[in-house]
Amino acid sequence: MTDDDLIAAARAAAAQSYSPYSNFAVGAALRFADGSVVTGTNIENASYGLALCAETVAVSKAMADGVRGGLEAVAVTGPGAEPITPCGRCRQVINELAQLGGTDPEILCVGPETTRRVRLSQLLPDAFGPASLA
Known about the structure:
There is one protein chain. By secondary structure, the protein is of the alpha+beta class. The chain has helices at 3-14, 54-64, 88-101, 120-123; strands spanning 27-32, 37-41, 71-77, 106-110, 115-119. Helices cover 31% and strands 21% of the residues. The chain has a five-stranded mixed sheet with strand order 2-1-3-4-5. It starts with a helix and ends in an 11-residue tail after the last helix. The mean pLDDT is 96.
């Protein structure tokens, strides 16, 4: 799967967003070393603090299916004129999955015209994760 395919998967996931309060539809797609892709979309809640981010939904789906390693890339897309990055909570959640497989995935922060490419370690330097508890 190419990066363009991964971005298309994230955009398709965003189309399934449940975001009636913010109207800020976000999609995420995770690509693994075996070629599999897992997607997620944001799910809002009337109790705003209980909303789920697209990246967290995708990581939860992957882990629920037993995927514990090989995370190579994550594409995140949303509305607006500029590329978006995962929020702090999502960076930590992605980091947990990445550390389980010893990877530093590329994060594709996607806007309508441009894509910003950055490694997770750049978005979350000196991250706390499973290795920190050993």
